[in-house]
Amino acid sequence: MPFWNVHIFGALQGNVLFNTARPIAPGIPLLLAPGSIEQENTVDVFARSSSLGAAFTGPEIGTLQAGGVVLFLFYNDALIVDRYGLLPLQAFGELKNEDYRFAAGLQFNVFAPNVPTMLTFGSMLGSGNAGNNFVGQVRVERFLHPSDNSDWTIQAAISDPVATGVVSNSPLSVLVTRGPALRITEDNGWPTLEGRIAYSVGKKSLVGLEQKRALEMGVSAVGGQLRSVLVPQPNVVANTYGACSDFRWSVSDRFGFLGEAFVGEGLGFQNGGILQSVNSATFRGIRTRGAWGEAYYYLTPCLHTHSGGGIDDPLDQDIAATQVTRNTTLFSNVIWDATKQLRFGVEFTYRQTNYVALNDNHGCGFHFQTQWSF
After folding, report:
1. What is the pTM of this model?
2. What would the pLDDT profile of 292-309 be if each residue is shown by its tens digit?
3. Which of 5, 135, 303, 361 is least surrounded, with the fewest CB atoms within 10 Å of its CB?
4. Who contacts 28 (Cβ-Cβ below 8 Å, separation ≥6)?
5. C-alpha to C-alpha distances, 17 to 21, 95, 280, 299, nearest whole angstrom
6. What is the pLDDT of residues 199-216, one digit of tens each?
């Protein structure tokens, strides 16, 4: 095929989100602000999670198929800011076949790739769901097929250490962090290294936009460095490393599980550590651990429910007084795919956020969503 084909796709969303405790951030609840004796009920009516994208398919180069994806959401480039804008989520080109894939551009992490099925774009980031950031990246993938019923996937990537979008240094920095007059968190002159190996077995079925086997188990790792520039004080370098195990098991056509567990240090830019990479007083790396899990059930091919929860629990001794020491999220939803294009959903969440010295907080959320995809 000597020409490029372009497929335009996207989704228009209408969301109504009620919370009984003040979330950070509006329309994308990741955690709760410190507790207050004042009324904290909030409501957000928004369409910022609507999306517009294009998938490209080009000519073959040898045995490799050329292609790429561009995808935008209508969030501002800093998700914690309650403004509309254009947020690039994916923008990569690739060459691939059944055995190899080479890709470069804006992509999701290799580290901790699973994501729970929630209505909110936040998807338990900072509550045990590490990874799923969108970073500049160069990636190589190898696919092995030892039998007709099983596959191995080996992935390696170098990526941007300081991703923008979900976090700065901490989503609380605009509220409670105090420090030097000028502070910059940046890379230390080295890219972040990511790797993953996964084994899958069983019958293939369509999961999202990809064909996946019934059972997949993977392990991944990430490593790098961050540098805090503290004018006029000396710079502070913090190590970033993490290890994660992930699984997805479609027990039957109707029922299944998925989840992840991770440990590491300095993982705020990987959506771990409750989005905190370094101690806001010493600027040393924060050690953390977390996990999340989900169970789903299809009552009919068009009506399905997903329930689960997650927790992110940094080590208390690594946290400054104004930072977050634990974040927990529980969720349950019902989604009705009325047609292939029209979807309705309702979701209940419970969140609890704990602080070292500030007031802890907890509350419920109620999310109603309508989506028209094309």
Report:
1. 0.90
2. 999 999 999 999 999 999
3. 5
4. 49, 75, 79, 80, 120, 121, 122
5. 12, 40, 31, 25
6. 999 988 776 667 789 999
